[in-house]
Amino acid sequence: MINAREKLQWASARVTTVQEDIAYSLFGIFGVQLPIMYGEKKQSALGRLLQEVVARSGDISALDWVGQSSEFNSCLPADIISYKAPPYTPPFLSEAVKRRPIEHKETYLTYEVRADGLRHLQITTEDRLLQFSQGRPTRQSFLLVRPWDRRLLELPDYADDTETVDDFTLSGSPRKEGSIDSESSERAMWLIVRLGQPFSAFLLAQQRGGEYERIASDHDIITQIKDVDSVHGMDVRILEIL
Fold it and tell me: Residue 101: pLDDT band by 50, 70, 90 thresholds?
């Protein structure tokens, strides 16, 4: 198992007599040491574990889930079963994205989302997304966010011959050793290419105090920028998410 998400998927079918043991039994697998506090409830125990995993390793794959948000933090799931479905895997750079049809449930609502610089998409969720209401006279803001992943800066595996993105082609010729400027330019070029790929996004709703909460969805929220020019207009922020 390579990352945290794969370990959590493996453990998603686990059943324990005491609800907190779902999280406590994974402490050793993830190599973390946290206080065991029976009575704190499952969401808190799982939330503490996932928070520690992300903080210690920087592995954001633990944030890739579908289902109900946790009361501990809206970026985390309420139950480990939210990792049961296989994670979204971006296509190879030369592939097109195929979306699975959504099976609608009576309790879910589907919204058409239009975001600056992104292609239009639909989101299905139990939450009611209201920009205006009697209790909220001012407009509520929503953000579609791509979490930063340091793997975006990794160079491709040159064992492959050639990878193509539309009309943009990179050959697998070896790089010159000691050329820092050349490698930095290549990393920047590949970053732009990867940012142009479809990605799994978070939908965040801004709260009254300026912080954000993640809106849970019953399917991965997959979106893509409209064109390469949209990459240069991307906004990079550090957000407080409850």
Answer: very low
160 vs 14, which has greater pLDDT?
Answer: 14
* Residue showing tokens 């064992």: 159
CA angle 80, 81, 87 (to 5 degrees): 95
Query: For 31-44, b where at least 16 C-beta lie within 10 A, e where not — what string?
Result: ebeeeeeeebebbb
Contact 14, 49 (CB under 8 A): no
Which letter does DSSP use for residue 118 in this model?
B
CA torsion sign for 221, 82, 76, 49 is: negative
In which residue are the tokens 């997304």 written?
Answer: 129
Upper half-sphere CA count for residue 86 (Cβ side, 13 Å): 4
Query: What's the mean pLDDT in 64-79?
Result: 93
